[in-house]
Amino acid sequence: AGCEKEPTSYMWIYILLGNMLRGIGETPITPLGISYLDDFAKEENVPVYVGILHTIAMMGPMFGFLLGSLCAKLYVDIGFVDPGSITITPQDSRWVGAWWLGFLIGGALSFLSAIPFCFLPKSLKKPEGAKKDKASHGLLENTGAMGNKLSPEKTKPRKWSAMLKGKYFYNSLKKVLGNRMYFTFLCCSLLQFSSFIGFVTYKPKYMEQQYGQSTSKSNFLIGITSLPPVGLGIFLGGLIMKKYKMGIIAATKFSFAMSFLSYAISLLHFFVGCDNHMVAGMTVSYE
Q1: Axis crossing angle, helix 227-244 with helix 248-266, rounded to the nearest 10
Q2: Which of 188, 189, 215, 190 lies closest to 203 in space, CA to CA?
Q3: For residues 251 and 16, what is the distance between their CA atoms, to the nearest angstrom?
Q4: Facing residues of 280 across strands?
Q5: pLDDT of residue 206
Q6: Among 29, 61, 191, 279, which one has the highest count of C-beta atoms within 10 angstroms of its own C-beta?
Q7: d(Cα 171, Cα 147) in Å, to the nearest integer?
Q8: How many C-beta atoms surround the C-beta of residue 245 within 10 A?
Q9: What is the average pLDDT score of the chain?
Q10: Are the beta carbons of 17 and 102 closer than 8 angstroms?
Q11: Is the confidence at residue 182, as pLDDT, over 60?
C-alpha cells in the first residue's frame, strides 16, 4: 500500500492545449496550399507542385525523429541536475530522456517559420497561363450549390455564422460527400494514414523490446529508413502524373495499382517476428 501513488500532475493539460493550438495553426496549410496551387498553377505542373508540398511535409517527421533521438540521449532533468551525478545510461531501462526539449525546439521553429506568412499580401494576382475556371467554382456550379451565374452581391464574403446557419454550407457538404469518387478516396486516405501512423508510432517500441535497442537509436533508425522513402514516392508519383498527363480516371487507376502493390508487400510483415520475452505472470508463470 505504501507504493501506491495517485498522479497529481496536470502538465498533460498543457501538452493537450499545445497540440490543439498546433493543429489549428497547421490545418490551413495543406487544404489552402493545395487549393492555391490548383487555382493558380498550370494544369500540367500541379501534380509536381503538390508532390513537392507533400514531400517537404514528410521531411518534418523525419527531422522530428532525429531530434527525438538526440533528446532521448539527454537525461530528463538536464539543466537541473549535475550530469556527473547520473549513474545510469540510455541503455538502462530506468533512463528517461529529455522528451520535453523537443516541444520547446519545435515550438520555437514553428513560431519563426510562421513570421513570413504575416508579410504575404491579402490577395495574389493570377499568373498568365493558369487555368481560369478551376475546381472550386466548377464543383459548386456543377452540384447546384451556387445556382445560376453569381451576381456581384452574392460574391461578397459572408460571415462563418451566416454560412453555417444557412443551407449553403449543408447543401455543399451534402453534394461533396455524395460524390462517390471523392468519398471513396476519403475513406481510402483514412485507412492509409491510420495504418501509417500506427506503423510509425509503435515500430520504435517494437525495436526497443524485440531487438534491445535504446529509445534514441530506435527513433534515429525510424527517421532515416521509414519516412524518406515515403517522401520520395510522393515526389516520383507527381513526376509520373505530369509526364503521362494523367486525367482523373488514369490517376485513379494509377493510385489503385500502387496501393494494391503496397498492400501486397506489407503482407510480408506477418512473416517477421521474434520470440516473446519472459514476463512473469504474462508469458511465464511466477514460479
Answers
A1: 150
A2: 215
A3: 38
A4: 284
A5: 83
A6: 61
A7: 11
A8: 10
A9: 78
A10: no
A11: yes
Residue 12 within a domain: no
Cell numbers 503521362 correspond to what residue? 244
Is residue 277 assigned to a domain?
Answer: no
The C-alpha cell 515500430 sits at 203
Q: Which helix (H) or strand (E) holds 174?
A: helix 167-177
Residues 172 and 239: beta-carbon distance below 8 Å: no
Domain count, the chain: 1
Number of neighbouring beta carbons within 10 Å of residue 175 = 16
Q: How confident is the model at residue 112 (pLDDT cuts 50, 70, 90)?
A: very high
All three cell numbers of 244: 503521362
Distance (Å, whole) CA 287 – CA 280: 8
Angle at which helices 167-177 and 180-211 cross, to 10°: 70
d(CA 183, CA 145): 18
pLDDT winner (highest mean) among 158-167, 197-206, 244-253: 244-253
- Whether 47 is in a domain gets the answer yes
Q: For 117, which DSSP code?
A: G
Residue 9 CB-half CA count within 13 A? 4
Give the residue from 117, 173, 135 showing the smallest Cα distance to 39.
135
Q: Which grid coordinates are listed for 217?
A: 537509436
Alpha-carbon Rg for the chain, nearest whole angstrom, is: 25
Q: Is 129 a residue whose pLDDT tops 60?
A: no
Nearest 5°: phi and psi at 32?
-75, -35
Amino acid making up residue 284: V
Q: How many CB atoms lie within 10 A of CB 50?
A: 20
Question: Which one is predicted more confidently, 69 or 141?
Answer: 69
Q: Which helix (H) or strand (E) holds 202?
A: helix 180-211
CA 263 to chain centre: 20
- Boundaries of domain holding 72: 19-117+160-270
